[in-house]
Amino acid sequence: MTTVLVTGGMGFIGSNFVRYIMQTHPDYKIINLDKLTYAGNPDNLRDIENDPNYSFVKGDICDREVVEKCMVKADYVVNFAAETHVDRSIYYTDEFVRTDVYGTFILLEAMRQYPVKRFVQISTDEVYGDCGDTPSTEDSPLNPKSPYAASKTGADRLTYSYWSTYDLPVIITRCTNNYGPYQYPEKLIPLFVTNAIENIPVPIYGSGRNSRDWIYVLDHCKAIDMVLHSVGHDGEIFNIGANKELSVLEITEIIFETLGKNNDLINHVKDRLGHVPRHAVNTDKIQRIFGWKPEYDFKSAITDSINWYVENKEWWMKIKYQDKDYQSFYKLNYKENQKDLE
Ligand code: NAD
Ligand code: TYD
Q: Among the CATH numbers 3.40.50.720, 3.40.1360.10, 3.30.450.20, 3.40.1280.10, which is that of 3-179+216-240?
């Protein structure tokens, strides 16, 4: 029996990945190690929580004891666990350094003791900083611009060092912005979709011309699955992206069009500190080596994703209206625009 240890499996990408692996490898066992921070939501995996091949361990990746107990059972590891929101990283930097860097260190140390076939570190394209005129390649310099991106860069390079120092079978992936179901409604798409559904203005930072590459979460999951099972390539980096760059204004337009809303709901607010103008990656390497390419058509995947939030109001209303953490962060982050948003 093959066992995959997934950390952070109660979050957005992690929960989609757990479900994806259970469907594509029905003979696998999954251990989901998650601390259940504000972003970890057991509702994300209600449908599979009683599956005999699935087990959940509530624990912190910074806790050596619990990590070792999970690692000893694992054949493969995918580390999604992280603090992930750029805006939060400006207020609560210590949590980002702790989980993203120190937590990854604890996982890598446990792997030295209890070897596995493959450890995939889920890094991010944010490690490159602004890509300027040319999408970043795996060899581009790292210029992280937010405490989130810098913490992820620390974890990314620490993971690499455990290959170069100890020859551990690690791979690092750097993906662009994901969209899809179960994304915590603090990130651009679920925040704007759920605000728009309720006719609450959407807070566009600065001009709204900042752009990101947008990938459907299941395309990302498939790429991770391929990398996870690859032979060779230890210590290597793979960019993952969909070559679908859109500005915040363009994303807003798509959301409004899908939901039948008009531009009265647009609210240009104070810009994010250190806001990166453009993130985009070159994905030639993963396409050449693994033959991976995004399969989901953007138009239909984004429409389906927006409609998922329309059809799953209960899921996000519980977060927005019962989660004190959500409300206090919203107030803190958007306080200067509070009057406009109420
Ligand atoms: P998320 O915030 O939705 O989920 C993070 C999960 O990690 C939560 O379930 C949380 O409870 C858990 N967690 C946090 N701290 C933990 C700790 N100390 N111990 C155990 N569990 C802990 O994040 P996401 O958007 O699903 O991102 C998952 C990973 O993918 C992250 O590593 C992120 O950096 C990376 N990534 C995300 C994107 C994106 O667009 N969302 C893009 C590229 C890379
Ligand atoms: P986000 O979803 O936070 O992802 P990231 O910062 O990791 O790319 O933000 C995506 C883009 O949307 C980014 O340019 C910032 C912008 N944005 C807003 O304009 N307003 C908001 O309230 C949020 C959360 C994001």
A: 3.40.50.720
